[in-house]
Write a structure and sequence with these properties.
The chain is of the alpha/beta class. It has helices at about 15-30, 60-75, 95-100, 110, 130-135, 135-145, 150-170, 175-190, 220-235, and strands at about 5-10, 40-45, 80-85, 120-125, 145-150, 195, 215. Helices cover about 45% and strands about 15% of the residues. The strands form two sheets. The protein has a four-stranded parallel β-sheet, sandwiched between helices. Strands 2-1-3 form a three-stranded parallel β-sheet, sandwiched between helices.
C-alpha cells in the first residue's frame, strides 16, 4: 500500500518556507496529537527559485516552466498530495494541475474558505499585484456575498514592503515601520477582517499586537488543509 507523503513546493519567497513548515508541525500536533518523530508525516520539500521580482512584470512563460518543473519533481518523488505556500503561484494553478498527474493539488484560496466571515461582511485583501489582478480571491469573496475593501495607498505600501522584506528579513526596522503603516491604512479604510494573501507577509501578523484587526492568514489556512487532507488519505488506507 502506498504511504501518504506530503509534497511542498515552497521557496516563494525563501523566507516563507520555514514558517510554513512550523505551521504544518503545529497542525499535526493540534489535529491528531503528534508527539514523537514517527508521528509526523513524511514530507518532500522543494524550495523553488522562481523569476519573480516585486514591482516588475512577470515573465509568464518562465514562471509556468519553473512551477511545472517543480510540481513534476515532487510527483517523481512519490508524494500523494501537494501544497504550494505561495499565493502568486496560484495565478498558474491550471498549469500546475496539468503537471500534477492526478496527485491532489490544494488551492490556497479554497483552504481559506472556512475562515471567511459570514455575509454580509467586508474584508481587506493584502496581496501582490499579480495575485490581486488574477482575481481568484475576489471571485470566491463575491460568491460568498463578501465585499472587498481596497485602496491605491494600500497596494502601493504592500508593493513597497516586499522587496525590503526579501532583502532585509523580518527583523528590519523599515519592514516593521512599513507594516505598521499598512495596518494603519487598513484601519483607516474601516476594515476589520484582513486576508493575508501573500505568504511572505504572514510572519508579520505577530507584530500587530494592539491592533483590533482580525487577520485571516492564507499560510495558516493552507497548513490546516494540508494536514486535514493528509489525515483523509491515511484514514482511507486503514
Amino acid at each position: 500500500m502506498k504511504k501518504s507523503k506530503i509534497g511542498i513546493l515552497a521557496g516563494m519567497g525563501p523566507r516563507s518556507t520555514a514558517p510554513f513548515l512550523e505551521k504544518i508541525i503545529d497542525e499535526c500536533q493540534r489535529q491528531y496529537g503528534a508527539t514523537y518523530d514517527m508521528d509526523f508525516p513524511e514530507m518532500h520539500i522543494l524550495s523553488l527559485p522562481t523569476p519573480f521580482y516585486p514591482g516588475r512584470p512577470i515573465d509568464c512563460a518562465k514562471m509556468r516552466e519553473a512551477l511545472q518543473k517543480g510540481i513534476t519533481d515532487l510527483v517523481k518523488s512519490g508524494v500523494s498530495l501537494i501544497s504550494v505556500p505561495c499565493n502568486l503561484a496560484h495565478c498558474y494553478f491550471d498549469e500546475m494541475i496539468e503537471a500534477s498527474q492526478g496527485i491532489p493539488l490544494l488551492h490556497i484560496a479554497d483552504s481559506l474558505s472556512p475562515l471567511l466571515p459570514p455575509p454580509p461582511s467586508s474584508v481587506c485583501l493584502l496581496a501582490t499585484l499579480p495575485t490581486h489582478d488574477a482575481g481568484f480571491y475576489q471571485h470566491r469573496l463575491r460568491n460568498k456575498g463578501i465585499t472587498l475593501i481596497d485602496s491605491d495607498a494600500l497596494s502601493e505600501k504592500t508593493t513597497a514592503l516586499l522587496p525590503i522584506l526579501k532583502a532585509e528579513g523580518y527583523q528590519n526596522r523599515q519592514v516593521h515601520d512599513l507594516w505598521q503603516e499598512i495596518v494603519a491604512e487598513i484601519s483607516r479604510l474601516g476594515a476589520e477582517q484582513v486576508i493575508i494573501a501573500c505568504t511572505d507577509l504572514s510572519p508579520l501578523v505577530k507584530i500587530s499586537d494592539g491592533s483590533s484587526l482580525h487577520f485571516i492568514d492564507s499560510m495558516a489556512a493552507l497548513a490546516t488543509e494540508t494536514v486535514t487532507e493528509y489525515l483523509r488519505q491515511v484514514e482511507g488506507q486503514s
